[in-house]
Amino acid sequence: MKLDTPVPGGPCWAELGTTDLAAAQRFYAELFGWRCETDPRQEAGGYTVAHLRDAAVAALSPLYQEAQPVAWTVSFAVSDADVSARMIEEAGGKVLVGPMDVFDMGRYVVALDPGGAAFQLWQARTFQGAGLFNAPGSLGWVELLTRDPARAEAFYTTIFGWTVATTEHYTQWGVGGADFGGMITMDDKFPHEVPPHWLPYFAVEDVDATTARATGAGGAALMEPTSVPDGPRIAVLRDPQGAVFGVYRAEEES
């Protein structure tokens, strides 16, 4: 992505909800070299931050609600979570959690867009979000998979003011023209039971080697390493607990 720091409207964090926090820590440490630190405070509920060197890059946590799926969720930075939450409801989305304070770190919201894809808002205070983007092991692209792209475009441009660049096969999102993600239409190739969702992509040095490590550690390749025409080499993987994420060769994002 062209963004390298959290900016209002842009992705600022990726968070995994999982059924086996210890196993997830081992898997992603093997895959990306993450060093994980669990918040010791009881009220933090096992929330764990992954680091590369001194930079926080993502989070892993237990599932906090019975209906919560095992999945990665993308957070977008906002200047006022309360105002943005009201805008979500007015634009046809649904607020599931919040707005709520997280200690002195910030204020967050969990929401669904009109198509049912979950995402989060983050109003930073002492914690801005990821301290590293686009480098191997860090977040580098986010992609919305939806069955109603026209409605999704209207919704997200209303909420965040994103710029939109569309080609024959792909739509890219941007903040002030700086692209950070894209959108894919879920057609008949996607099983009906797969809901619309946001898919984070993490940068890696070697997509093929990362895919081999993932499958060797109990994960699966949902899309084998593929070179996108005029784009990066990518793969879509699933961790052993069932969470789906993408990887791409660093410095080759669209």
Write the layout of secondary structure elements.
Elements: E1 11-18, H1 21-32, E2 35-38, E3 48-52, E4 55-62, E5 71-77, H2 81-90, E6 94-102, E7 106-112, E8 118-124, E9 139-146, H3 149-160, E10 163-166, E11 171-175, E12 178-185, E13 197-204, H4 207-216, E14 220-227, E15 233-238, E16 244-249
Parallel strand pairs: 1-4, 5-8, 9-12, 13-16
Antiparallel strand pairs: 1-5, 2-3, 3-4, 6-7, 7-8, 9-13, 10-11, 11-12, 14-15, 15-16
Short description:
It contains four helices and 16 strands.
Strand neighbour order, sheet with most strands: 2-3-4-1-5-8-7-6
Count the E strands: 16
**Fraction in beta strands:** 35-45%
Structural class: alpha+beta
The major pleated sheet works out as: 8 strands, mixed
Q: What's the overall average pLDDT, rounded?
A: 94
Distance between the termini: 7 Å
Number of helices: 4
How would you describe the overall organization of this protein?
By secondary structure, the protein is an alpha+beta fold. Helix content is 17%, strand content 43%. The protein contains four helices and 16 strands. The strands form two sheets. It has an eight-stranded mixed beta sheet, covered by helices on one side. It has an eight-stranded mixed beta sheet with strand order 10-11-12-9-13-16-15-14, covered by helices on one side. The chain is globular. The termini are close together. The mean pLDDT is 94.
